[in-house]
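Researcher: Re-running this chain for the archive, since the previous output was lost when a drive failed. Same request as before.
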Amino acid sequence: MTNPLLEPGVLPAFSKIHPAMIEPAISQLIEQNLSAIAILAEQDHPDWASLIQPLELMNDRLDRAWSPVRHLNAVKSNPELRDAYNLCLPLLSEYATEVSHNQELYEAYHRIAESADYTNFTPAQQKTISDALLHFRLGGVELEGDDKQRYQQLQTELSELQSRFENNILDATQAWQYLTEDESELSGLPDYAYAMLRQLAEQKEMSGYRVTLDMPCFLAVIGFADNRSLRQAIYEAHVTRASDRGITDKVWDNAPVMQDIVAKRHEKAQLLGFANYAEYSLQTKMANNVEQVLEFLYDLAARSRQAALKEVAERQEFAQSLGFEGELEAWDYAYYSEKLKQHRYQISDEDLKPYFADEGVINGLFDIVAKLYRIRITRIEEGIDCWHDDVGFYQIEDSKGEPIGQFFLDLYAREHKRGGAWMDECVNRYRIDGKIQLPVAYLTCNLTPPIGDEPALFTHNEVITLFHEFGHGLHHLLTRVDVPEVAGINGVEWDAVELPSQFMENFCWEYDALQLFARHYQTNEPLPLSLFENMLAARNFQSALQMLRQVEFSLFDLLVHRQADITSAAQIQQILDQVRSEIGVVETPAINCFQNGFSHIFAGGYAAGYYSYKWAEVLSADAFAAFEEEGIFNPETGNRFLQCVLERGGSRPAMESFRCFRGREPDIEALLRHSGISQ
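Model: Regenerated structure tokens:
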């Protein structure tokens, strides 16, 4: 049988990828690469054509083999696939470390950087080489002897630990369910939620209603269920996932995994000469140092605190006006917040969902970016091998009708699919032998699925999530950089990578944009202006609490990765408790093990970088302010953002791209205004 991982087509052949073929293919590619690198690194006079291009080709081939495996493990997990995936992690980790420790290769890059030809390189080529030299140093190329061997061991162990952390969350999430045939237990839920819970039961050939921890289900119950005991049960199940405190199997407890991850990251940073992992992490970010980030976060907390205290008091008073006695608990917050929001602004998810049917939202999103960037997006129905029937495949063309990128769109929550939403690279843009390899992206969400024969109806927050991930996708797909290491999101500082995604969220709050897609799925009537005005009035409802929540996560992340000698999960808990005591305005139950499910920092790429969401939001809010000033569909403004930011990818520092677009450095005022913290 031909192995599709070794002989990839233009797109992955998902249906032909079987677990047994994965490890042999990855091993073969790694062996071929290492043999070729050994020869390439021995050149006396390396240049771009003789060294960098062959390396790019090898990396591209390995990336294209591993990408569909990594993706399938996230969206269609099963034990055999997971085993094959985990078998490859140490191989890939050891390969990456061996390359980054290759002294001859490092010196070859140095010789190119110091050669007379270097000044004639394009900015993208120069940035590729300077980034590579930095990654060599951060990868431990200058280590010697036992230190080098220990570094390689740490890298391998960390890749396995991070995968285990993610798997534990998925297994613990799917292990919990609550079944009932008594509809009265679910009173207060919107109609769509009843239908969703019935469908979840039917999928398991059960009668009645099935409550799970999938996000659309969790949010519906925690925000609308009158049954306080049910709210408490689902809250406690959610915040104790992958811990030793919940009712699911303790085998999934992430506490020791998390502690081990933090300790090994700290040791790795110290091997490289950094005081801690936070200091190491910031080497590839816009922020200058840990103190600058801490100052930024504590400033946001201070600006938000009084408003947040007021929001907490208003919620408590409103609950008491409805007859609630005593202090609200964590499983009451969302419920009474939703009731207060409906009372104050006469608006709820139930009012808005009929206007956000899946097909209309997708077409509206495509119309918006067509206006902004003069592109056209069409669905390709035939000849595409997808991993699930719900997945769509689309092509982007420029104003001349030339293809410039393609993407898979996987919108709905389902079993065996990792929670959250993300964009990932399937294929990178790359110029090979005068031909352009078009970029391809995976765009993945966990939105409310269709119920029966009805279309999927999204909450406004789900629409925002889709727009956010699509912004990441555009960053990857609209690049005009032909060097893969700095094309699209590659080479972009991590605390700037959220700029295009958060920028896109703003269009979900603009009436002219909503008019393109917010139409009632039954009558086709547009979203009424009165409903939009209520929605806009409610935009910053409890925004100070939301700001403090994000700052809490960011501070915890930074401080836990700055702390030396963490030897227990209890120390991690103490750091989180300390952050909450400094900036929190509500009590968090002792049972809450939020950190055990914080995959962004313990399994994803946000370690000592979660602050990036807020840091980049300063950039995105200020960038969108230009559209507010010049017109949200102003083609000149859109073209400037396209050329200065999206097309340039990581081929230059993010601040240069921002200054190109805005004509100055970013101003925090737009973020404070958008968040309702300042007028």
